[in-house]
Amino acid sequence: MSDIVVLRLGHRPERDARVTTHVGLTSRALGAAGMLLTSDDKSVAESIERVDKSWGGGFWVRIGVGYRSEIRKWKESGGIVVHMTMYGINMPDCIEHIRDEFKTKGVMVVVGAEKVPGDVYQLADYNIAVGNQPHSEIAALALFLDWLQQGREFGKTFSDGELRIIPCEHGKNVERT
């Protein structure tokens, strides 16, 4: 499989810090290599980096990026761009084609916050929806990452962290490594 990167658009520090942090944590947990954030919000990057240090994975965050230049660079390197939007094609109608491309190409998943600039719809290779209804960008991202990888993300190991969960049916079991 190729790399997955998430591009978070339109982050408003006074309103979106928790949601954007959850976009990053969801991306990390479900197999993405890193997140690009158009805002200069260092607190979001620091929060995600703390989790990555504790739990492992090597997930990276870059802040203050320009979305147009990042999308252009991604496409020039041979990657595809998938924009999650309720206005797009329903995921079941196009996921097989995207999976086929993902075998040899990286995927940049674009997730908006506030109103997404109109050119994003043209820059994206795919505008994908999960139901053509208003929904959470975190839920849409999680569903897409799962469908793209067909559940393989659950087999990812995070061996370089300070903490590791020992799965158990009841209670919490965390081991320091």
Could you explain the architecture of this structure?
The protein has a single domain, classed as Alpha/beta knot (3-Layer(aba) Sandwich), CATH 3.40.1280.10. It is built from six helices and eight strands, in the order βαβαβαβαβαβαββ. It has helices spanning 13-29, 42-55, 67-76, 95-102, 119-123, 137-149, and strands at 4-8, 34-37, 60-63, 80-90, 107-111, 126-129, 163-165, 174-176. A six-stranded parallel sheet has the order 3-2-1-5-4-6. Strands 7-8 form a two-stranded antiparallel ribbon. β1, α1 and β2 (34-37) form a beta-alpha-beta unit. The chain is globular and about 45 Å long. The model has no long low-confidence stretch (mean pLDDT 93).
Task: Please render the helix and strand layout as text.
Elements: E1 4-8, H1 13-29, E2 34-37, H2 42-55, E3 60-63, H3 67-76, E4 80-90, H4 95-102, E5 107-111, H5 119-123, E6 126-129, H6 137-149, E7 163-165, E8 174-176
Parallel strand pairs: 1-2, 1-5, 2-3, 4-5, 4-6
Antiparallel strand pairs: 7-8
Helix pairs in contact: 1-2, 1-6
Short account of what is shown:
The chain has 177 residues and is α/β, with parallel strands linked by helices.
Main sheet: strands, sense, barrel: 6 strands, parallel
CATH homologous superfamily placement: SPOUT methyltransferase, trefoil knot domain
- How much helix is in the residues? 25-40%
- What integer is the average pLDDT? 93
In terms of quaternary structure, what is this? single chain
Identify the strand order in the major beta sheet.
Answer: 3-2-1-5-4-6
Number of domains: 1
Shape: globular
Rg is 16 Å
Count of beta strands: 8
**Share of residues in strands:** 15-25%
- CATH T-level topology: Alpha/beta knot
State the low-pLDDT regions, or none.
none
Distance from N terminus to C terminus (CA atoms, Å) equals 28 Å
Number of helices, counting only DSSP H or I runs of 4 residues or more: 6
- In the CATH hierarchy, what is the architecture at level 2? 3-Layer(aba) Sandwich
The ordered H/E elements are: EHEHEHEHEHEHEE
InterPro entries: Alpha/beta_knot_MTases, tRNA_m1G_MTases_N, tRNA_mtfrase_aTrm56
GO molecular function: tRNA (cytidine(56)-2'-O)-methyltransferase activity
Binding site for S-adenosyl-L-methionine: 112-116, 130-137
Subunit structure: Homodimer.
